[in-house]
Design goal:
The complex is a heterodimer of chains A (109) and B (116).
Chain A lengths: L2 E3 L3 E5 L4 E8 L6 E6 L6 E6 L3 E5 L2 E6 L4 E6 L8 E8 L5 E3 L3 E6 L1
Chain B lengths: L3 E4 L2 E4 L5 E7 L4 E9 L6 E7 L5 E2 L8 E7 L2 E6 L8 E9 L7 E2 L3 E5 L1
Parallel strand pairs in B: 2-11
Antiparallel strand pairs in B: 1-3, 3-8, 4-5, 4-9, 5-6, 7-8, 9-10, 9-11
Classes of the chains: A mainly beta (109), B mainly beta (116).
């Protein structure tokens, strides 16, 4: 079966750095997305990785290792508004999005 | 980025009635639209995938006669929850994919359905 694993919840301090990991086992791979979702709202796109390596976009970076079935989302200079759920989603061989359960990130002052 | 508009944002209906949710792609042609349901503190659950002009493909466990999906044009898909019951209360979200092949999924704002 297809499976995506992320931690259920993480806590970090304002101004700090946090890394949210995502491991996956899917039938084929055509890219990995990270989305941010605030409570009661639809997800918003953060990043897309299809090749190995690090993609940096402002305070957010995303890393992918296809051989290890592993990705992480790195958030720097955390702000209170970063408190949200972060969803990892993998595109499988049929170009279907397989969603992780999401990681709830709690930012403390 | 591309815009997907979903309407209504929230709706309260009586048990036994039907509710229609619209999903429109405003600045691109959506060949494929996806309908998700999300219960509190849970991840998105794909309900069905619809391609313009053809019947929707429903995920296992989703009743096609209860959740009617119509994708009549490249910019509009609708989800109708028929004979709604309190257990259908949830957050329903649509997303769309364009003609240019696989791109990031663009999401509507979501619809909070409460059945009383």
């Amino acid at each position: 079966g297809q499976n995506i694993d992320q931690p259920t919840e993480m806590t970090a301090t304002e101004g700090a750095i946090v890394q949210i990991n995502c491991t996956y086992q899917t039938s084929g791979f055509n890219g990995l997305f990270w989305y941010q979702q605030h409570a009661g709202e639809a997800p918003t796109f953060l990043s897309y990785n299809v090749l190995d390596g690090l993609e940096e976009k402002g305070r957010f970076s995303s890393f992918l290792s296809r051989s290890k079935g592993y990705s992480y989302l790195l958030l720097k200079e955390l702000q209170m508004k970063d408190s949200a759920s972060y969803l990892c989603a993998v595109v499988d061989s049929n170009y279907q999005l397989i969603w992780g359960a999401g990681t709830k990130l709690i930012i403390k002052p | 980025g591309a815009v997907v508009s979903q309407h209504p944002s929230w709706v309260i209906c009586k048990s036994g009635t039907s509710v229609k949710i619209e999903c429109r792609s405003l600045d691109f042609q959506a060949t494929t639209m996806f309908w998700y349901r999300q219960f509190p503190k849970q991840s998105l659950m794909l309900m069905a995938t619809s391609n313009e002009g053809s019947k929707a493909t429903y995920e296992q466990g989703v009743e096609k006669d209860k959740f009617l999906i119509n994708h009549a044009s490249l910019t509009l898909s609708t989800l109708t929850v028929t004979s709604a019951h309190p257990e259908d209360s949830s957050f329903y979200i649509c997303s769309a994919r364009g003609l240019q092949g696989y791109t990031e999924a663009f999401f509507g704002q979501g619809t909070r359905l409460t059945v009383v």
